[in-house]
Amino acid sequence: MTSSYITPKARKGRKSGIHGRGLFAIKPIRKDEIVAIKGGHIVTRDQLKKNRKIIGDSYIQIDDDFFLAPLSKKEHDLVMMFINHSCEPNVGVKGQITYVAMRNIKPGEELTLDYAMIDDDDFEMQCACGKSNCRGVVSGKDWKLKKLQKKYSNYFASFILQKQRYL
User: Fold this and answer.
1) pTM value surpassing 0.90
2) Could you tell me the domains of the chain?
3) 70 and 55 in contact (C-beta within 8 Å)?
4) Tens of pLDDT, residues 6-29
Protein backbone atom coordinates (compact mmCIF):
# COMPACT_ATOMS: atom_id res chain seq x y z
CA MET A 1 0.00 0.00 0.00
CA THR A 2 1.23 3.47 -0.82
CA SER A 3 1.25 6.59 1.37
CA SER A 4 2.79 10.05 1.71
CA TYR A 5 5.36 11.04 4.33
CA ILE A 6 4.40 13.80 6.78
CA THR A 7 6.97 15.19 9.22
CA PRO A 8 6.33 14.21 12.85
CA LYS A 9 6.36 17.99 13.50
CA ALA A 10 2.93 18.31 11.82
CA ARG A 11 -0.50 16.71 12.06
CA LYS A 12 -2.92 16.31 9.18
CA GLY A 13 -6.66 16.30 9.06
CA ARG A 14 -7.58 19.13 11.47
CA LYS A 15 -10.31 21.56 10.32
CA SER A 16 -8.84 24.33 8.17
CA GLY A 17 -9.99 27.92 7.95
CA ILE A 18 -9.11 27.80 4.25
CA HIS A 19 -10.77 24.60 3.03
CA GLY A 20 -11.87 21.31 4.57
CA ARG A 21 -9.05 19.73 6.53
CA GLY A 22 -5.47 20.99 6.68
CA LEU A 23 -1.92 20.19 7.79
CA PHE A 24 -0.75 22.02 10.92
CA ALA A 25 2.65 22.42 12.59
CA ILE A 26 2.74 21.02 16.12
CA LYS A 27 6.45 21.81 16.65
CA PRO A 28 8.69 24.50 15.12
CA ILE A 29 9.74 23.72 11.53
CA ARG A 30 12.92 25.32 10.16
CA LYS A 31 13.26 26.94 6.73
CA ASP A 32 14.03 24.33 4.04
CA GLU A 33 13.15 21.43 6.38
CA ILE A 34 11.16 18.64 4.71
CA VAL A 35 7.49 18.75 5.75
CA ALA A 36 6.07 16.13 3.36
CA ILE A 37 6.92 13.78 0.50
CA LYS A 38 4.04 12.93 -1.81
CA GLY A 39 3.27 9.26 -2.31
CA GLY A 40 0.98 7.51 -4.74
CA HIS A 41 0.87 5.54 -7.94
CA ILE A 42 1.97 7.04 -11.23
CA VAL A 43 -1.17 7.42 -13.34
CA THR A 44 -1.89 8.92 -16.74
CA ARG A 45 -4.44 11.65 -17.39
CA ASP A 46 -6.85 9.01 -18.73
CA GLN A 47 -6.46 6.87 -15.59
CA LEU A 48 -6.99 9.97 -13.46
CA LYS A 49 -10.28 10.73 -15.25
CA LYS A 50 -11.41 7.09 -15.06
CA ASN A 51 -10.75 6.83 -11.30
CA ARG A 52 -11.87 10.34 -10.31
CA LYS A 53 -14.37 9.08 -7.69
CA ILE A 54 -11.59 7.28 -5.79
CA ILE A 55 -8.85 9.87 -6.40
CA GLY A 56 -10.87 13.02 -5.66
CA ASP A 57 -8.45 15.86 -4.96
CA SER A 58 -5.69 13.65 -3.53
CA TYR A 59 -3.51 13.69 -6.66
CA ILE A 60 -0.64 15.92 -7.80
CA GLN A 61 0.66 16.52 -11.28
CA ILE A 62 4.24 15.33 -11.87
CA ASP A 63 4.51 16.02 -15.61
CA ASP A 64 2.32 17.05 -18.53
CA ASP A 65 0.12 13.94 -18.58
CA PHE A 66 1.26 12.12 -15.42
CA PHE A 67 0.07 12.32 -11.83
CA LEU A 68 0.66 10.70 -8.42
CA ALA A 69 -2.59 9.37 -6.99
CA PRO A 70 -4.18 6.65 -4.86
CA LEU A 71 -5.83 3.73 -6.63
CA SER A 72 -8.17 2.66 -3.83
CA LYS A 73 -10.39 4.32 -1.24
CA LYS A 74 -8.14 2.77 1.44
CA GLU A 75 -5.13 4.69 0.06
CA HIS A 76 -6.94 8.04 -0.32
CA ASP A 77 -6.25 9.52 3.14
CA LEU A 78 -2.84 7.83 3.27
CA VAL A 79 -1.60 9.81 0.24
CA MET A 80 -3.47 13.05 1.08
CA MET A 81 -1.12 15.64 2.51
CA PHE A 82 -3.87 18.16 3.37
CA ILE A 83 -1.69 21.08 2.28
CA ASN A 84 -4.21 23.72 1.24
CA HIS A 85 -3.61 26.54 -1.24
CA SER A 86 -2.62 30.01 -0.06
CA CYS A 87 -1.48 33.05 -2.02
CA GLU A 88 1.01 33.61 0.83
CA PRO A 89 2.33 30.06 1.38
CA ASN A 90 4.89 28.81 3.87
CA VAL A 91 5.67 25.58 1.95
CA GLY A 92 7.33 25.14 -1.45
CA VAL A 93 8.59 22.27 -3.58
CA LYS A 94 12.12 20.86 -3.77
CA GLY A 95 12.51 18.60 -6.78
CA GLN A 96 9.26 16.97 -7.80
CA ILE A 97 7.49 15.43 -4.81
CA THR A 98 9.32 16.83 -1.77
CA TYR A 99 7.69 19.72 0.10
CA VAL A 100 9.82 22.02 2.27
CA ALA A 101 9.29 24.99 4.57
CA MET A 102 9.95 28.28 2.75
CA ARG A 103 10.47 30.04 6.09
CA ASN A 104 10.49 29.15 9.78
CA ILE A 105 7.03 27.89 10.80
CA LYS A 106 5.62 28.13 14.33
CA PRO A 107 3.46 25.52 16.08
CA GLY A 108 -0.22 26.03 15.29
CA GLU A 109 0.38 27.44 11.80
CA GLU A 110 -1.37 25.76 8.89
CA LEU A 111 1.08 24.53 6.26
CA THR A 112 0.08 25.96 2.89
CA LEU A 113 1.30 25.88 -0.70
CA ASP A 114 0.59 28.06 -3.72
CA TYR A 115 -0.80 25.63 -6.30
CA ALA A 116 1.06 27.66 -8.96
CA MET A 117 4.16 25.74 -7.80
CA ILE A 118 2.75 22.34 -8.76
CA ASP A 119 0.01 22.70 -11.39
CA ASP A 120 0.05 23.12 -15.15
CA ASP A 121 -3.48 22.06 -15.93
CA ASP A 122 -6.70 23.60 -17.20
CA PHE A 123 -8.61 24.52 -14.05
CA GLU A 124 -9.75 27.53 -12.08
CA MET A 125 -10.83 27.72 -8.46
CA GLN A 126 -11.99 30.45 -6.13
CA CYS A 127 -9.33 31.16 -3.53
CA ALA A 128 -10.36 31.27 0.12
CA CYS A 129 -6.94 31.97 1.68
CA GLY A 130 -7.98 35.38 2.98
CA LYS A 131 -4.50 36.90 2.53
CA SER A 132 -4.16 40.58 1.57
CA ASN A 133 -2.45 39.58 -1.69
CA CYS A 134 -5.05 36.92 -2.59
CA ARG A 135 -5.47 36.45 -6.35
CA GLY A 136 -9.17 35.68 -5.90
CA VAL A 137 -9.11 33.06 -8.64
CA VAL A 138 -6.34 30.47 -8.89
CA SER A 139 -5.66 28.75 -12.20
CA GLY A 140 -3.54 25.87 -13.37
CA LYS A 141 -1.52 28.31 -15.46
CA ASP A 142 -0.52 30.72 -12.66
CA TRP A 143 3.03 29.36 -12.78
CA LYS A 144 3.45 31.56 -15.89
CA LEU A 145 2.99 34.76 -13.87
CA LYS A 146 6.36 36.54 -13.70
CA LYS A 147 5.62 37.99 -10.24
CA LEU A 148 5.09 34.46 -8.86
CA GLN A 149 8.19 33.13 -10.59
CA LYS A 150 10.21 35.88 -8.93
CA LYS A 151 8.49 35.43 -5.54
CA TYR A 152 8.94 31.66 -5.35
CA SER A 153 12.19 31.30 -7.34
CA ASN A 154 13.24 27.62 -7.16
CA TYR A 155 10.35 26.45 -4.95
CA PHE A 156 8.41 25.21 -8.01
CA ALA A 157 8.13 21.52 -8.95
CA SER A 158 10.97 20.60 -11.30
CA PHE A 159 8.68 20.01 -14.30
CA ILE A 160 7.30 23.57 -13.84
CA LEU A 161 10.82 25.04 -13.52
CA GLN A 162 11.70 23.34 -16.80
CA LYS A 163 8.69 24.95 -18.51
CA GLN A 164 9.59 28.38 -17.12
CA ARG A 165 12.99 28.18 -18.81
CA TYR A 166 11.29 28.03 -22.21
CA LEU A 167 8.75 30.83 -21.78
Assistant:
1) yes
2) 5-161 (2.170.270.10)
3) yes
4) 999 999 978 999 999 999 999 999
